[in-house]
Amino acid sequence: MSQNKWYQLTSEEVLQSQQVNAQQGLPWEEAWKRQAEIGRNELSEGHRVSPITLLLNQFKDFMVLVLLGATLISGLLGEYLDAITIVVIIVMNAVLGFTQEFRAERSLRALKELSAPNANVWREGAVHQIPARDLVPGDIILLESGDRVPADVRFLETNGVYIEESALTGESVAVGKVTSAIPLDEVPLGDQRNLGFMGTMVSRGTAKAVVVRIGMNTEMGKIADLIQNTESMETPLQHRLEQLGKILIIVAIALTILVVVAGIMHGQPPYAMFLAGVSLAVAAIPEGLPAIVTIALALGVQRMIKRKAIVRKLPSVETLGCASVICSDKTGTLTQNKMTVTHLWVGGDVMEVTGDGYTPVGSIQLGGQNADVAKHVSLNKLLQVSVLCNNATLYEEKQESKRKKGKEDNAVSVWGIKGDPTEGALVVLSAKSGITQQSLSETYKRIAEFPFDSDRKRMSVLVSSENGRMACTKGAPDVLLQHCSYILWEGKVIPFTPTLKQKVIAANEGMAKSALRVLGIAYKEIKSSDRYEDHEDVEHSLIFVGLTGMIDPPRKEVRDAISKCRKAGIKTVMITGDHQTTAEAIAKQLGMIPANGVSMSGQQIAQLSDDELDAKVNDTYVYARVSPEHKLRIVKALQRNGHVVAMTGDGVNDAPAIKAADIGIAMGITGTDVSKEASSLILSDDNFSTIVAAIEEGRGIYENIRKFIRYLLASNVGEIMTMFIAMMAGLPLPLVPIQILWVNLVTDGLPAMALGVDQAEKDLMQHKPRSAKENIFARRLGWKIISRGLLIGVCTLGAFWLVLRVNPTDAETLLKAQSVAFATLVMAQLIHVFDCRSSRSIFHRNPLQNRYLVFAVLSSLVLMLAVMYVEALQPIFKTVPLGWKDWILVLIAAGIPTFLMGLGSVLSPKRSKSSRSTGYKSSKPSFR
């Protein structure tokens, strides 16, 4: 019972291996014995972490511990507002982290819900309904339309059974099942047509099967195991912020100690220097950084929802910005998931069909002109047979929508198909020419049907009319041709000669090479004396009419989205369960495969070692007929090559790869609960172009995070440099502790938040993705922080010294000098915030474009003026009012750091341009 390749065995060999009689089933005692040995037919959830443990784990982060320390210090200094703010930040971060991890735990529970609750099983010669968890290998089960397959089974008998396996294999069309053995060594999951898999759905027909695998040994169980053993990737933002926090704390504490020691050595009172040092430490450590990051991400999430992307994990928004590869499913994401007839071959004529999707709008073109269906006898007959030999129905729904301008209610028609997508495509084709089921129902009445069978590969319907009876048949062309003796050619029925058959075969091969799914159409008149009790009576001496070629067409907007990705240095890869020829054709239509690009099948992947796969992934753009294990291997191989991978999917089979990817993306419409729970992002419209929009948002959010990090740290460096240089030079304290804390409050709050919602620069999607290993200070950000911070400190101290030198020993002069230093420091930071909006300088962007920033700066300015000009606040903050000459000094000193560096950028545009062009430098090769 350890056999893995059950598809290779005949039904008799499987029954013998399982030691069971197909007519009797297992004895109850034997079933209980096997259950005791093997276990129940259940999916394991693995080790479960309690919610309390998940919550407590949120407080182990290094930055959280630092914030707790800052809370204690703020409390000791009497800064209770700061302390409360920090506590709120900690709690908010903990709740967000807990929510994300708790959702991840639910993905396995969602997988378990796909298991069938009950099963009809033969035990001791009788049919019993038992809980599916009690099934054991060797049980004989019965399946019918609407049943969920309760375990992995080998089919013994099938009666027109079709199973929907898209959640497992990714193939959108239901698979017809057979009972014969498949004598091949390696067969992809989607081609194992004599097996049924746990969690898949019987769409039609009935079957008898023997259970061969249960629980975690099933294909669904393998996916559950992959989900359990796949670790979620830490996002680059999480990693870099943790590194940044550690660096800032060490540097801030070291410099603060130096300032305190230097002040004491130059005769300053120890107690005063201690308070100043602690105040400087609190100001230097950007405890608001996590909150601002969270707010920036949350606001970005709101913008992404408007663009049809729903974010489940906040840090994943930033990860999108450095995605270098998008691995996308084909069906429904790159394509419309609506089978559409695009070509016809009728009586030697090749015709093209216009129109997309299920909307019956379009035409049949012959030689660039609309074909006259009424006069073209062969075409008319093909359309009639396509509708009569069909069980699908076309329906129209009216959906209400509101016009934005007139606000009038408008009914919008939405067309859909009930039934098999292939049959639906034929119904839509005929409806485009006015031939519908309703119009034919008055003339023709169905009197018999011989359903499509996997062995026969064809379907026939017998209809009657006033003129007699007619057989309508459709099926695989290679099989159908063997049953045709005549052909409808130029409006006449003539013998089907070898020459004419060769023309049909050539046309069929031409369509197949274009990745079209081809169906042959035939019919014949039934004489009153002819028997029609079974399909053999009907399906012989048929009259061949023509061929229909259909495909799931690409979404119109996807080609432009892929082109945009290419310009942004992002590689797009198709990973699908569909056939390789079809996948390649769609990829070429979308411009996805460059001249040197190749495709690979799941069978080829299985034969490669990890090292061999690593060597091939950079040149491979299409992966077809892949299993869940293959998808996971592809994602990991790309990651080992240094890529940041975004993985999309909708099925259960996609969940392990979605979880392993740097950012997992699930489909909102067609996606299973399992794929959604494993994902970081959900597309509410299942559209590839939405991923590109999300990447653009992700890049913008990360750049905004860098903007306020640049602003916060440059401001903090300016404060530290002001105090450090003054102490080393033996000057009095340029700022008292309360002033340091107030500067921190008015400059680090609203302006920093406003930068978090800043508009993206125009050329954001014109650069390669940044490397996932990129340091937070890369692209000269570290230099900008240090240089601007140093200049802010020097200019602030310069203004302080110019006022102090008038009378260095006078207390009133010192008070005025400190007020000037306070005003200069605040103004320098408020001017500098506009410089941070551009990667080049303040002169390269309109400073009034971000109205939130303008409001924030004005608010901070009012707060600063309040402590200087409100008499009640002056004693508290040790300030005095300044005259107009003092303000000239303040504004000149405050403007030097920003305008001096900006002027340098304007005067050397080549250097600035070069610097910008490498903005998203990647260690990976460029993709054409």
Automatic annotation (TrEMBL):
Keyword Nucleus appears in the UniProt entry: no
GO cellular component: plasma membrane
Domain Cation-transporting P-type ATPase N-terminal, first and last residues per copy: 5-79
Alphabetic keyword roster: ATP-binding, Cell membrane, Ion transport, Magnesium, Membrane, Nucleotide-binding, Phosphoprotein, Translocase, Transmembrane, Transmembrane helix, Transport
Pfam families: Cation_ATPase, Cation_ATPase_C, Cation_ATPase_N, E1-E2_ATPase
Xref: SUPFAM superfamilies: Calcium ATPase, transduction domain A, Calcium ATPase, transmembrane domain M, HAD-like, Metal cation-transporting ATPase, ATP-binding domain N
GO molecular function: ATP binding; ATP hydrolysis activity; P-type calcium transporter activity
Database matches in SMART domains: Cation_ATPase_N
Reaction(s) catalysed by this chain's protein: Ca(2+)(in) + ATP + H2O = Ca(2+)(out) + ADP + phosphate + H(+)
Membrane-traversing stretches: 62-78, 84-102, 247-265, 271-299, 708-729, 741-760, 781-802, 814-831, 852-872, 887-907
Cellular localisation: Cell membrane
Compositionally biased region (Low complexity): 915-928
Chief localisation class: membrane
Superkingdom of origin: Bacteria
Record region (Disordered): 907-928
Membrane topology: Multi-pass membrane protein
InterPro entries tied to this protein: ATPase_P-typ_cation-transptr_C, ATPase_P-typ_cation-transptr_N, ATPase_P-typ_cyto_dom_N, ATPase_P-typ_P_site, ATPase_P-typ_TM_dom_sf, ATPase_P-typ_transduc_dom_A_sf, ATPase_P-type_domA, Cation_transp_ATPase_P-type
Family assignment from sequence similarity: Belongs to the cation transport ATPase (P-type) (TC 3.A.3) family. Type IIA subfamily.
Protein name: Calcium-translocating P-type ATPase, SERCA-type
Taxonomic lineage of the native organism: Bacteria, Bacillati, Bacillota, Bacilli, Bacillales
